[in-house]
Fold each of these.
Amino acid sequence: MSEYREESDALDTDIQQIIHAWHHHGTTLSDRDFNQLALRLFAYQLRYSQPYAQYCTLFGITPRALPTRWEQIPAVPTDVFKDVPVATFDPSHCALAFETSGTTQGRGGVHYMETPVLYDAALLSGFDRFVLPDGAQLRYLNVVPNPAMRKQSSLGHMMAAVAAHRGDGHTGWYIENDALLTHAFIEDLSAAIEERLAVCIAGTAFGLLNLLDTFEQKHLRFDLPPGSRIMETGGFKGRTRTVARAAFYGKLMQRFGISSNAIVAEYGMTELTSQYYDSIESRATQQRIKIGPPWMQTRIVDATGKDVPDEIVGALVHFDLANRSSAIAVSTEDLGARLGDGFVLLGREEGAKLRGCSIDAEDLRRA
Amino acid sequence: MLELPAGHIVRAIADAAQRWSDADFPPRVRVTDAIVQRTGYSMPVVEYALDRLFFELTSDALKDAIATELGSLGALDGFVTRRGKPDGFARGLDRVCIISSRTTIGVGLVPAIFALCAKCDVTVKDREDSLIAAFFETLREEDDAFASAARARAWRGTEETVDLEPFAAVVAFGKDATLAQIRATCSPDARFFGFGSRASAGYVTRGALGDSGRVAGISAGAARDLVLYDSEGCLSLHMLFVEVGDGKQTEHFLRSLASATQEATLEFPVGVRDPVDAARVANFRAVAAFRAAGGQGAVYSDDACSFVLVYDPPKDEAPAFAPRTLGIIPVHEPSEAIRYLQRHVIRLEAFALSDARPDLVNAAISVGAVRLAPFGELQRLPISGDHGGRPRIADFIRWIDKEI
């Protein structure tokens, strides 16, 4: 067995153990343990990912001059995934390749993963803990692309895995070739209501908003069976139409007859393996706090990369130990502010200040 | 206003502008603070903008601008003789509305002033800093006739609507969607002048790169064009094309530009950058640094990330349009610059050129530029110049020909 394989397998095993311990026993990770594994993983990635290693030299970091704290690990900007494969292995041998939607500039990126094991373990544990803490078995109505038709969608893969392991055996998919299958959704939802089967409607904010538009036009309103829930993700990033979150959730509650507690926002990105969710405690409040599993950490930084104080808005930098075969640290343009044990996520559209003369980047790019 | 001679109006405006040229003039002091609050620009940037705005509004400059377009100032007062044409009277339109949403400092003021010179009744939807309202107040102090002719009130964005039906001309600045909405509410007979999203570019020839005496000047000019107004103006330098030549000359230019940008940042410091912009700028730098580490291009910045220059960004990537960020794109000839601009469907306002080389000028014209300027002058549109390719006063008058 090669040295690379040995190291990779050892890391996968250790990371899986952490995921398993939290998933089944709620075991958290001490800062010391997180730091230790983060530095080990980073050193491994420096050895096997040349682009990442070259980038780190700009910060004076080399295999011989490694950081001592996870916070010092240079983060790879998400846009870099559009330029080069960020991988510790030959991407032509990947097990999973998820594509970003290329939100703002029409250039998509790819996150290559060497094994599906970590991704599937991370997604199931997060979903179980944050969306299904009651262990409910639900019918999944997915307003996301069907991975059978679009295997490069990480969201599709995630919901397929969830539905396969936690569903009732009848899963619906309502995005086909970027078209929303509204009629099929209404039919399936009505059937589930008729049978009093609790459902989980999972979709992007934009997709759900389009559904709501149809409901409004057709004066449709549903009363979801008890135990039903909605998992919303994606915000309105890269979309020309945005709706304030409170108004959006208000409409969801009104049209589906559910409470605020039954709406869970997932925050994930293609460049990460793990996901954040609204903390259970914050779902009834105006300010939802995102928390992640113990193998994820987030820094909130200013333009110079320094941490901003609590409750001050900055850019999010994520550290995901499950990103074993890509990059442990990923920097984003997403904004947030640290609050309590997590952070409040502010979409670009919510934080964007409208000002300027006659240049408007969105206008110029859209022209 | 109709009874006032145009010369009197021009003098009153010039006198008011002279008072506003004094940085200690109390209304200016108040408005300056408000502009800093609104825009987040640093005080030196705002002071510079106000100086630029009011220093230029001299009686001679206004008269020249009017005479250039109308033939004479007197044409605004009554019939004048015109060569090869019947006698003509440049009668101002009755009511003009200027909607200055999403503008940089005082952009709405200039058309308001020319509309007043045309003796129009002017209503301005002002920004929250009330710059135009405060200037109109000074105008009133110069002559009470302005009290009824020049009105300005704060603009509260899209939640506030205004009845545009009575206006004979509407000038609007803003996003394309906003302009379309505004246009739809104008009277069918009204003249509509929309100033939407535009960008500006620069082009440095290999000849200029090879002239060490010119490199410093071009660098200083380009740096100023970049940092002023945080790249938010349609006349800001948003992308720079540099002709490929001697590698050492290019590198020398890049170092010179980086150094000049650092100096310009000292003169015009970054103000309060909102988190969205801060994240975009930081991301722009980080991505470029990643590429540079891999051997593609180069990055020039400072510790505070107050500016970011990126040499040789991917050509399939549109400009960042983030504050004080600049992609420097190597090209072999102007046609490559044209292809870049067309590929990204960039609507161009101005082109800063290092040379008036004919092929370069033709290229700039072919991509829709309405202004060709030297580096350092990109953001200094002269009062006599055409903004957005439009005249200053001619849009606010109707010619009455007298053939009897």
Note: Chain A is about 35% helix and 20% strand.
Amino acid sequence: MLPEITKDSVSTESAPPYPLQWRKRIYAMLGLVVLLIAVVILAISVDSPYIPFSTTFQVIFSKLPFVSTSSTWSPGVEKVILHLRMPRIILSGLVGAALAVAGATYQGLFRNPLADPYLIGVSQGAALGAVIGFMLPFSWGMWNLGAAPMFAFAGGLGAVSIVYSLARVGKTLPMTTLILAGVALGAFLSAITTFLMLRSGDTLHGVYSWLLGGFSCVSWTEVEISLPFVVIGVLFISLYGRSLNVMQLDEEQAQQLGINVERTKRILLLAATLITAVAVSFSGIIGFVGIIIPHAVRLIWGPDYRFLLPLSTLAGSIFLILANLLARTILTPTVIPLGIITAFLGAPFFLYLLRQRKRAIF
Amino acid sequence: MSRFRKRVMPLVSLLLVLVMVLAVAVGCGKTEETPPPSTTISVTDDLGKTIELDKPAEKIVSLAPSNTEIVFAVGAGDKLIGRTDYCNFPPEASSVESIAGYSTPNIDAIVLLDPDIVLATGAHNQYGGTADLEDLGLTVVTLAPESLSDILGNITMVGTLTGNDTEAAQVVADMQSRIDFISDRTAGLSEGQKPQVLHVTWHDPLWTAGSGTFIQEIIELAGGVNIFDDVTGDVQVDTDTAVLRNPQVITVVSGHGSAMRTSYDYIIAEDSPFNITDAYISGGIHLINADLACRAGPRVVEALELFAKFIHPETFV
């Protein structure tokens, strides 16, 4: 711990002065962990349709080793709790974490407060992939999944690699070129997607609800596939907190401070895109999380990336689990597209924070 | 020796008896299991999947208004425990618990209802909903009719699944005779005697039904020609082309899921682009309930009768 602090106190002479509020931030992290657990428990029970807390606990405890209780609930209840709600809640937490961390990373990389996982064509590529996946007549037998998630994943990664190779100038990657290439390719891909949707006929329903985002039917398979990607990706990016701090300065200055800027950019871009693509492929297009969560965390706990990244992970999970819960319960039994809820909740909360702290966010 | 025997023999005999009892018990258990579970009901759904039930389905969830109408038509409405928000016919359906929308059913709600069968449509299969439900151990029957005779087949199938074969046969026979009544009278028409028909599902942009749809089949059975039989499925078409093809009859569905007549009002308006067509001039523009024209259920025959009246008012009154 000690050498870390000294190292930082040296760099703060030239870097923006981030006061080290260890205690406050650790409390914040612990508080968010507790909140996350509470929200998970709440979401399992108070979903649509409602299952009483007592039954929920009994079902979960009966599954713990060395506990034997007589089951007084119908088999449907157990199936819903263990095979629908738990994977759905875990996946929404993972997706929330992935989008929030990816958003924070892109904002840091591009030094642009408006950057989000969708700025460089990830979402448009994934959407096109998903639409093609929906139109294909086969399913992904190996994992018992539809073709859409895999195609969405490939589409997202494919789009970003095209944008990357278009934007590269020699050995450097100018961020302005990257964003412009991303926006242009995104528009092109969206045009193809819209055209295909127009021609998709009966499959339109599926495509449309996928594009609106959500977790209508999630099985453990989706969790098993996405969990390692998201956990490793988020942890990996979190290691680069200090680099991202330094990169908020001039790139030249960062170079002088011993950071291989180009290499770091490439690595972080790849990692953030990977977790975004995983998130998008299983949940569809859920806007706003990548922008709102990192900025809210910045406004509350400051812009230090060493804390911004883990705090965004937790806050993103909590936010998306809650948003999904609301999407499913407001008009029970109808499920509202999740994207509506994230924007409807996220935007006013964000505007409130913005008014509360009128100083510069970024 | 004898003392040994005296002591051991009872034990041995006891053991023997035990073994025999056990053998018999196990044997009995086996003889009870040996007869194969008598499958009394077996049907093949529209995906080619074989569905086998030990007894008629007692708890049914329907994922589409057309399926709900079929369940009620074959007299199994009391076995329906879940329906969609759009299932508004027959009125009794509204007292059944809803499992939310047609394309967005609440999976949790369906699983909690623990149905014997779930009646889905081709659309549910295409976006993966059917597979999701089957993974959760539910029996999903898919109704994906492509023609009127497929609908009759679906009604027979639901009758078999619910044990109401007789009722279903009656419904099918009645529908078939009503279809035959119309087709008998339109079969001999020459091409010149068949009016050009435009079917409008939405006006701006103009959406119509092309070949491969029920509407196409209904228009032909009713003795008309679909002016857009050169396009396939439910499609958006150009208004100018529709006007230039000069339909003699225009059928307009009321807005989906409600009594909205926006499209109809647009087409019959004074400044309508259709005001130069024969249909507009001769008063051949008709409003038709979307629930009749769009649902692949027992009321499709009512839609056919309406089309017949619109297209050949001189023959069908």
Note: Chain B has two domains: 41-173, 188-311.
